[in-house]
Design brief:
- This protein has 141 residues and is mainly alpha-helical.
- It is built from four helices and no strands.
- It has one domain.
Amino acid sequence: MKIEELTNDVFYQDVEETIEKIKRKKNRYLFFHYLSRVITFTAGVTITILTGLKDIIVINPDKSILFISGGITLLAAFEGLFSLKEKAMNYDLFLHKLRALRNEIGFDYIEGLYQETKKEHFKQFQAALEFKTEIIKSSFD
């Protein structure tokens, strides 16, 4: 829940900017994950078609098949090494925590408790940032 009256509050702006930054990072990881999947699928289909054409048309696609197979292997290794989908899901977990904090800030603002609970919200924000660090560390293990 976004509160327009809090757009001038530095802490609230920091939470919003962090949410947007993490959302972009998550979407970028998902995009590259799906892009590598589509390219791998397309290359696999191309190999099948080239192998089938070998018997029909008098061409020798062996080098093309070898090149495409190497590309598929490279993409699969890239995906396995960097675990793009897992990273995107980890950032999604962090986003969930930040959105819950933003909603709590909004609720406290509506109830008139925001100034009294601001320090507690800051501690929760710091804990969420530490949570992000732990998620990133665990994704490299």
